[in-house]
Amino acid sequence: MKHLTRIEQLEQLRRDERIELEQVTDRFAFRGNEYYLSLIDWDDPDDPIRKLIIPGLEELEEWGRLDPSDEKSYSIMPGLEHKYNSTALLLVSNVCDGICRYCFRKRVFINPRSEYLQDLPAAMQYIREHDEITNVLLTGGDPLALAPSKLEIIIRQLREIEHVKIVRIGTRAPAFNPYRIVDEPALLETIEKYSTDQKRIYVMTHFVHPRELTDPAIKAVGLLQKAGAITANQTPLIRGVNDDPEVMAELLANLSFIGAVPYYIFQCRPAVGNKAYTVPIEEGYEIVERAKALVSGLAKRIRFVMSHSTGKIEIVGKMGGLVYFKYHRAADDVDSGRFLVLESNPQAYWLDDYVEMIRDYPVNLPYRSYGPQ
Q1: Quick one: pLDDT band at residue 355, thresholds 50, 70, 90?
Q2: CA gap 330, 307 in Å, rounded
Q3: What angle do CA 264, 267, 268 make, to 5 degrees?
Q4: On the CB side of 266, how many CA atoms lie within 13 Å of its CA?
Q5: CATH assignment of 58-309?
Q6: 3-state SS, residue 88
Q7: In the chain, N or C: fewer CB atoms in 10 Å?
Q8: Which residue ranges make up each domain of the chain?
């Protein structure tokens, strides 16, 4: 599969467009491949697949942070994070088959040598010494961009640790390049070998738009399932891509049809360059709820969440000028299950935008917290 890493390789764009977009790719990496680029309707400037992979000048707007979820605060060593008690995260790759324009880990591609796991023995030793870790999430970059032999080494060592029950693989490969799976029997053999009745491998797919669910993509998901993997899908809510309730409903329904269970819809993280891709939280809540109303129970099992520095926070309701949040997963156990009631702020993109209101109005606090104290 041919990969493109320079904007001047995109012959579908006019020469002046390519020159103009170089100022974006000088700052944020571009990467695509022949398969995924073939899904674009180049005659439609608002094509959603185009928006997902082709740089836009709006990325130069100064907004957001390189590490919006403060992952470095939870890093034990480069490439190993331990934020939640039972879960460790390994950034095992600094390569993807394509780079999403809304990527919240742009820093991995800006500093590729320092932002992923390079000392696998030390990481495995840490996990061995922490028997509270039952889940290990492999991410990056994309773990399936690794050679199957390298991925097998990682999974085999994790399977040798008794208390690690679940290995999760977060991947965009079925959407970006399903042939990594379809044409890689060694990968499927690894899944089949290490996804056992007692210790399953979960493959967390990342389909963002219904048009990504092509025949090869569906075949790739099916092969992973036949090899013994449990598949679930998580998607961010992206402006101009899936922020239409009917489009989101179609995505959720089709995912349920192929058994890639809708798991999370993420509030797009406020990473540098992401303003144009981000929907305000309260508008996002309404989009998600309208989409859920259009699908069956099996398709509406998703939770609309934001991966905040303090935990995974679910947006659970909006009524009477108030917005309701709940800690679905907390970095500090004392916050587990904590319920937050905040005054509505239609321009809020992140929890911190509500917290800012506290500083603005210290006398009449709009923030109330209910839960373990």
Answers
A1: confident
A2: 10
A3: 115
A4: 19
A5: 3.20.20.70
A6: strand
A7: C
A8: 58-309, 312-373
Among left, alpha and beta (phi > 0; psi -120 to 50; other), residue 141 is left
The CA distance from 72 to 67, in Å, is 8
For residue 340, how far is the Cα from the chain centroid? Answer: 24
Give pLDDT tens digits for 222-277. Answer: 999 999 999 999 999 999 999 999 999 999 999 999 999 999 999 999 999 999 99
Among all chains, which residue has been given the structure tokens 């994309």?
142
If one counts every other C-beta atom within 10 angstroms of the C-beta of residue 312, the result is: 20
Contact 329, 312 (CB under 8 A): yes
Asked whether the beta carbons of 89 and 80 are under 8 A apart, the reply is: yes
What whole-number distance in Å separates Cα of residue 169 and Cα of residue 293? Answer: 30
Tokens matching residue 310: 């303090």
Residue 125: HSE in the Cβ half-sphere, 13 Å Cα cutoff: 6
Contact 325, 351 (CB under 8 A): yes
Q: Residue 57 in contact with residue 20, Cβ under 8 Å?
A: yes
